[in-house]
Each structure stands twice: as C-alpha cells, then as structure tokens.
Amino acid sequence: MTIQEKEAFxxxxxEQIAELSAExxxxxxxxxxxxxxxxxxxxxxxxxxxxxxxxxxRYEEGTKRLNRLKQAYLKIDTPEYGICxxxxxxxxxxxxxxxxxxxxxxxxMEELGLK
Length: 115
Ligand SMILES: [Zn+2]
Prior knowledge:
Largest sheet: none
Radius of gyration: 19 Å
Order of helices and strands: HHHH
Strand content: under 5%
Bound molecules: zinc ion
Number of strands: 0
C-alpha cells in the first residue's frame, strides 16, 4: 500500500467514523426520548418497544463497528494495516475500501466463518 493510498484510507476512515458517530447519536436519542416526548398511548408504547429492540441492535452493531474503525485508524500508519491477521497476506484494496476496519482477507474470513 502506498503512502497516498494510506492517506486516502485515513480520510475514508475519518469520514466513516464521523458518519457512524452521528448515526449512533440519532439512535441514542430515539432510545431515550426526552421526558414528555415518549409514547403517549398503549399502541404507541407497543410500537416504541418494538422500535427500541431494533434501535438497540443497531446501536450495538454501530458501536462495535465504531470501535473497529477506531482501531483501524490507529493502526493505519503501522505496517500491519491491510495485512490479514490469519494468513499475513495483503487484504484486497477493494475490500478495504468498503470495510477499512477489515483485519482478515476474504478467504480467511470465510474460513473462520466471520462473514
Ligand atoms: Zn487471510
């Protein structure tokens, strides 16, 4: 990976971190409505509960991914970045563009059942 490529990745990760943080904030607000702005009747309350379980799932997935992105960001200047943890081959650039937090190549990820 060239220095220019790494710089581009840094930007990409920064943007994804910002986007994801904003999304997590929105979910958080939906999870904890302000006093008086919560569900007003029984039906609304039921829907609220349903939505909440979806929000919680999205929130958990979001925070996990955010942590991985932050880890990747810290590692980008080290030679380990972009190298598969399992087979130590380079991870395909196309894959890293989509998921800059990847620590495994596609084959290893499939083999490990981590897809
Ligand atoms: Zn691998």
